[in-house]
Amino acid sequence: MTSGPDITTGRVSAAELASSFDDIHPPLDRRTALIEASRCYFCYDAPCVEACPTDIDIPSFIRSIATGNVKGAAETILDANIMGGMCARVCPVEELCEEACVRNTQEDKPVTIGALQRYATDDLFDHGLQPFKRAPDTGKRVAVVGAGPAGLACAHALARSGHAVVVYEARPRAGGLNEYGIAAYKVPNDFAQRELDFILGVGGIELKLGMALGRDVSLSELRQNYDAVFLGLGQNHARALGVEQEAMSGVLNAVDFIAELRQATDKAALPIGRSIVVIGGGNTAIDIATQTKLLGAEDVTIVYRRGPDHMSATWKEQQWTQSNGVRIKYWAQPRRLIGWPADAKGTALKEIEFEYTQLDEDGRLTGTGDTFALLADQVFKAVGQAFVPTAIEGDRSSELLEMVYGRIAVNEDRQTSLPDVFAGGDCVAGLDLTVQAVQDGKLAARAIDRKLRA
Amino acid sequence: MADLSNDFVGIKSPNPFWLASAPPTDKQYNVERALRAGWGGVVWKTLGEDPPIVNTASRYGAIQYNGTRVAGFNNIELITDRPLDVNLQEIKQVKRDWPDRAIIVSLMVPCEEDHWKAILARVEETGADGIELNFGCPHGMSERGMGSAVGQVPDYVEMVTRWCKQNTRMPVIVKLTPNITNILMPARAAKRGGADAVSLINTIQSVVSVDLDRMAPEPVVDGRGTHGGYCGPAVRPIALRMVGEIARDPECAGLAISGIGGIATWRDAAEFISLGAGNVQVCTAAMTHGFKIVEDMASGLANWMDEKGHATTGTFHRAAVPNFVNWEELNLNYKTIAKIDQDLCIQCGKCYIACEDTSHQSIAALRDDQNKRRYEVIDEECVGCNLCMHVCPVDDCITMVEVDTGRDYANWTTHPNNPMRKEAAE
Description:
The complex is a heterodimer of chains A (454) and B (426).
Chain A: E1 7-8, H1 14-20, H2 30-38, H3 47-51, H4 58-66, H5 70-80, H6 84-90, H7 97-100, H8 103-107, H9 113-126, E2 141-145, H10 149-160, E3 164-169, H11 177-180, H12 191-200, E4 205-209, H13 219-225, E5 228-231, E6 237-238, E7 251-253, H14 254-263, E8 272-273, E9 275-279, H15 283-294, E10 299-303, H16 315-323, E11 327-329, E12 332-339, E13 349-359, E14 365-375, E15 378-381, E16 385-386, E17 403-404, E18 407-408, E19 421-423, H17 434-453
Parallel strand pairs in A: 2-3, 2-5, 3-4, 5-19, 7-15, 9-10, 9-15, 10-11
Antiparallel strand pairs in A: 1-8, 6-16, 12-13, 13-14, 17-18
Chain B: E1 6-8, E2 11-13, E3 17-19, H1 28-37, E4 41-47, E5 60-65, E6 68-75, H2 84-97, E7 102-107, H3 113-124, E8 130-134, H4 148-151, H5 154-167, E9 172-175, H6 184-192, E10 197-200, E11 204-206, E12 210-211, E13 216-217, E14 228-231, H7 236-247, E15 256-260, H8 266-274, E16 279-282, H9 284-289, H10 293-308, E17 335-340, H11 350-358, E18 363-367, E19 373-377, H12 387-391, E20 398-403
Parallel strand pairs in B: 3-4, 3-16, 4-7, 7-8, 8-9, 9-10, 10-15, 15-16
Antiparallel strand pairs in B: 1-2, 5-6, 6-14, 11-14, 12-13, 17-20, 18-19
Helix pairs in contact in B: 3-5, 5-6, 8-10
């Protein structure tokens, strides 16, 4: 008779894992890319460009693919978005460029812009080409804090302009969410590190790993020692469910597990429950659910407190996880964690009770009073992350750094209330997407460059 | 159901679709497959004198357009490379086995009457329905004083045609080269020589592409290339125009035309027939897709004829010829302007940028109150050129609407701006 949680390693063979964690969308071959490229109308003032947070000239790069100028296509992409390769893999294109494609109006089938972008950037990477050259050294030095998409994009653009850049990263590896946060099957073959190498390949960027702001270096020091500072701090805090006994064993933060999974040399060594419940409605929820399913969990259920249209995970992401055997239950919120009888190690999770939800007359979410329970060996919390400014607290500079709704306040140049400090990515307001972080870094770099040359 | 049967200068076939003289008709095996597939007839690949010519490897080049293969096709193959006897035997056998199909023999021999006389007698003996004189081949044979070397000199065309008419009872079709300034010159010459019909166009001299690695024209034969003959969908407009010119030329009246040049569908065939062709010949489409395409050509043409009430091809043959006129006969008082159907518009902006950059700045790029793109024709500026209609990717989204100018028909011949104008009669 079962008397405790069923959590074990090695639920799936290494061979199965290798295939299930392989590329979810295999790359286009040359012929398919040409045919797809020929579907692009080369629109005037194209809606897809308007929908791209980094303003990639999409019709132009697609035309370059069509003419066989694949290197030119990659240059067009990377010039606007140095992480064009990563964005081609992780962008929710169905809500950005591909949603805007005029072919939707005509035939409900957009040009597969993301796949074409990947085709062009992969080609450049596979040929080991470096299209960018550093401008002559300006003698100016800029500190970038955080080697995530925002920080790296900013560092690259600054280095291109001839400034010397030092990037401080608290974690042991650079890449930020690209390295620690994105589902493994979206970036197989160590793509995040290959892209990092490509970005650093321009020269003039020094990485200082394991250096945390607020611990190993302070904002005031950076401001003193550098001509400008860029903060790409990301979000550092996983939100709690707000129910009792959250410390119970088996109740985990999805982002922590995803990071562990990305860094694991042997995925089969990760302990996985037989029954898993994921709480949340974003891409993190989708990613943890799909990946635990692929790791051998038998029943995986995502529970979200609102309906499918409210989920921040796109319809395509929802379909993707469902097609992998994950069940999504909408309109329910967690109420109670129920444990097995406590033993020497404490209490382990057995099940979780939910209350059905609905919108009241004023459109507010309320519980209906009816409940149900799901057996769960593990519960993954994916109810969002927040920026907690511990890294900049207690520093003289931080007193002058304005915040807005819990994030660092910036203007359109991504300049903070401190004229020499800029910020971007998830620590400022805006879309929490890789592509937006890249744009923030790019815009900040432009403004910093203008400022340093003035 | 429409009757597709065809009578071309007395040569009968169950439909107007013949395979042109080319690789698909080089030997009995291919020809029988074609006839089984339903082709109305074949023009056997050009026979010459022994010893046969030799061919190269490779022989073809092609243009791809937006991922579509063989939008244009180019060959450097010569006439048949098989002994004359073998071809004649096979022709005889095929004609015996397929009496209801048209079997035409294409010929090319040196420009001396004895040579023509000799081969005509042997062809006649096969029971073939007619001959086609290959005055069109633009490569390889022309350098030897045959093919288009003859076709480019109207006097030679007339002379050889006359020899053939005098030395055979078979109908004579003269195949014309388009590699000439005015197609009417050889067409009229053929008529003077007594030809029953002309067929056109043969291929257009071409270099289909340059291999940028080997720095040689394609197809590359051991590092070098040569010009070839261009055909396929890309040449159809050129062929259609030349067919139409002959059809409306009073001096060519009564001269039958077999239309050739990029014909791939029933619609192409209907267009050629309406502009003067008595039947059509096909090659590239068959080489691209196989002989089966004739099924749709036949059923498509019959269905269209039923829809339009044409019992036979005769009722629309030449129907478009009277409307094919010189530019100066067009009505200068006729006006159309573009109209954009906003419900069909997908907001791609192609009409706008085409008009703005390259034409008359007659389309406005606007944003509605939801910042949605909207493109509108500025009626006063539109000259009715219809560029926008052609670049629009949506069928029927942009149409050309007739505008009543209140003025009667008037053309250039009487226009005040024409220094050579004729005074209008009182």
